[in-house]
Amino acid sequence: MRAPRPLILITTSRAPSPRTRSLVKDLELVLPRARRLTRGHLTMAELAAIARARGAVRVLVVGERRGNPSIIRAYKPTRPPLEPRLENIVTFIVRGASLSRERGARPGRGADSLLVEAGEGSEDVADAMVIAFGARLLMPGMRPGEGAVVASLTASGDEVLVEFRDWEGESVGPRLRLARPQRMVKGGSDA
Fold it and tell me: Is 54:9 a contact under the CB 8 Å cutoff?
């Protein structure tokens, strides 16, 4: 039996630091049907062509500043008959990242689905995660099934803390401090 094609390709900006590469590995294990792609010298157009060929519906590009992850851009690949390109749909500003290896948490097992549990004041980030990652909102009384990862969001001022748990409630993957998401009005910006 053949594995399903990835829905999300995750890569970095060019010449990433070890922390940024580790964040990409962590994200691969908590986002549903996500696969890492080594960027190398690939252009955005080449990333779009690869995403189209693999049937991906999202491409995430993790950028950095001074060796630390600082931005996650979510792109939607165009569909035929349009030329392959990536349209920027959501940008998350990363104000802090705590990697699974730094916290002694399990990196994750590979998620079948991502459920977002929005705390009070974090609804905008929850909506952006649904759009960017193909997540679903966790409704009251809903129990995550086996293979699900829950992203719990806690608002604090102008930031939102994102913590990932597996279906058994154990902490997995990275812990992120995000600024409020920004909707991008023009697509295909260089990363």
Answer: yes
